[in-house]
């Protein structure tokens, strides 16, 4: 077995030593995942996927966001899609992927079917999400730049690793599952801006479940399909960056996952976080200059959006919203009416956005000129670590805004004090 596959299979099936930070961040990501999934159940793509899977029938072994139950693969497909429908879930910038929406749907379905404990579920999820980040690093940025969606591709391997760990696969069978996943992992950036983007997350979760369930039943696949001349890396613009294995099992890259605290494109978040340090109340703003990495100019710099959806991709609009006191963490803050507000339009037009190659993709610099002539300068990097206490406070506050404080506290208590996976799965719906 080649070094990469052996390392990943051994990691996914072996004993691990976690850190308090890794365990806490995993629990926070679980809360965040459930909250954004519950908040996204009425999105059109969510209704379509649920209707299709429920119409197919089969034995309902795992809960669905929005109610009902489905076979494991169908549940993973629905829950992955629904939880990415709002694009409000966590992001790991090491490879630009969304780990939770690919891994948690698979691991929760498998845990529920096997009557696993929440602590086992969380450990498997951490392993799967860590492996997805490592696979993304092994593939390299060229894979993403060529048009592949890392959430769907790297995420599928993470989903298989997490589900396979709960299913008790041996290292040899885990290698088979990863190899089989290599022929199923798929997802294109061409789907961005359509229902196809959240569907990519569902595909990753479903592929992981499918590969594990087949291998568990004796299915034989090529365990080397990630590597080699015709393997996944070689055929998908992979860089074969073996440094991705450094520290595997000893350090947890997943600890650096970035949770979204604003209900808009992640490219806007560094600017919004920087604005938290500014006196940016509307009456005092003369001009506001934003410097950001040039890649975001074509992604989230709509100059004059007229819809709530467009507002989520506009530096000027979200910063004007903040200056007017609108909570950018709330879904209902983004509306057509807000975009038409004359006060917002006036402020939005005072925001200048400049591409700056000296900044990383996670950084932004703001320069505020006040009407009294004072200038304030501030920068923010999304990779700047929050203390664990700050991260917990903000994730729990976000969840409370999405699903209510009582529901968020109840889920958090389960995640921190234990119970069964079925108890957690029952919280995918309100009531």
3D structure, described in words:
Strand 5 and strand 6 form a beta hairpin. The strands form two sheets. The protein has a four-stranded mixed beta sheet with strand order 4-3-5-6. The chain is globular, with a radius of gyration of 21 Å. 53% of the residues are buried. The protein contains 19 helices and six strands. By secondary structure, it is an alpha+beta fold. Helix 1 crosses helix 9, helix 4 runs antiparallel to helix 10 and helix 5 runs parallel beside helix 8. It comes from Ruegeria alba.
Structural class: alpha+beta
Beta-strand segment tally: 6
**Termini separation (Å)?**
49 Å
Helix count from the secondary structure assignment: 19
The 3D shape can be described as globular
The major β-sheet equals:
4 strands, mixed
Strand content: 5-15%
Helicity, as a percent range: 40-55%
Radius of gyration: 21 Å
| Uncertain spans | none
Q: Which sequence of strands runs across the widest sheet? A: 4-3-5-6
Structure in a nutshell:
The chain is an alpha+beta fold.
Task: Give the helices and strands, then pairings.
Layout: H1 3-13, H2 20-39, H3 44-56, E1 62-63, E2 69-70, H4 72-84, H5 99-113, H6 118-139, H7 141-145, H8 150-166, H9 171-182, H10 196-216, H11 232-235, H12 269-275, E3 285-292, H13 308-311, H14 315-323, H15 336-339, H16 342-348, E4 351-355, E5 363-370, E6 375-381, H17 388-403, H18 405-417, H19 421-425
Parallel strand pairs: 3-4
Antiparallel strand pairs: 1-2, 3-5, 5-6
Helix pairs in contact: 1-8, 1-9, 2-4, 2-6, 2-17, 2-18, 3-4, 4-5, 4-10, 5-6, 5-8, 5-10, 6-8, 8-9, 8-10, 9-10, 14-16, 17-18
């Amino acid at each position: 077995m080649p070094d990469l596959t052996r390392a990943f299979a051994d990691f996914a099936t072996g004993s691990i030593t976690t850190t308090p930070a890794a365990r806490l961040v995993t629990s926070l990501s679980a809360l965040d995942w459930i909250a954004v999934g519950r908040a996204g159940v009425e999105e059109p793509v969510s209704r379509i996927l649920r209707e299709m899977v429920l119409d197919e029938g089969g034995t309902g072994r795992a809960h669905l966001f929005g109610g009902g139950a489905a076979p494991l693969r169908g549940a993973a497909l629905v829950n992955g899609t629904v939880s990415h429908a709002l694009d409000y879930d966590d992001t790991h910038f090491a490879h630009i992927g969304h780990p939770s929406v690919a891994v948690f749907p698979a691991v929760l379905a498998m845990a529920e079917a096997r009557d696993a404990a929440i602590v086992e579920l969380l450990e498997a999820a951490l392993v799967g999400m860590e492996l997805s980040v490592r696979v993304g690093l092994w593939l390299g940025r060229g894979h993403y730049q060529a048009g592949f969606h890392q959430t769907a591709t790297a995420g599928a391997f993470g989903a298989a690793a997490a589900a396979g760990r709960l299913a008790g696969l041996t290292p040899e069978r885990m290698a088979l599952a990863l190899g089989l996943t290599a022929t199923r992992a798929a997802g294109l950036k061409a789907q961005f801006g359509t229902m196809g983007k959240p569907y990519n997350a569902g595909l990753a979760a479903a592929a992981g479940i499918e590969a594990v369930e087949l291998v568990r039943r004796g299915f034989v696949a090529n365990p080397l399909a990630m590597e080699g001349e015709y393997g996944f890396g070689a055929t998908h613009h992979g860089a074969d960056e073996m440094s991705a294995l450094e520290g595997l099992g000893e350090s947890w890259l997943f600890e650096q996952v970035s949770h979204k605290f604003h209900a808009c494109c992640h490219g806007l978040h560094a600017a919004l976080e920087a604005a938290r340090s500014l006196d940016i109340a509307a009456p005092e703003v003369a001009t506001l200059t934003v410097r950001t990495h040039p890649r975001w100019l074509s992604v989230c710099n709509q100059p004059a959006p007229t819809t709530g959806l467009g507002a989520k991709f506009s530096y000027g609009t979200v910063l004007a919203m903040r200056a007017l006191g609108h909570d950018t963490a709330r879904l209902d803050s983004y509306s057509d009416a807000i975009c038409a507000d004359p006060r917002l339009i006036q402020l939005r037009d005072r925001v200048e956005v400049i591409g700056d190659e000296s900044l990383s993709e996670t950084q932004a610099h703001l320069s505020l000129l006040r009407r009294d002539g004072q200038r304030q300068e501030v920068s923010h990097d999304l990779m700047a670590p929050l203390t664990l206490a700050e991260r917990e406070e903000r994730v729990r506050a976000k969840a409370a805004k999405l699903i209510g404080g009582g529901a968020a506290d109840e889920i958090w208590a389960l995640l921190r004090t234990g119970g069964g996976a079925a108890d957690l799965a029952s919280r995918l719906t309100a009531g």
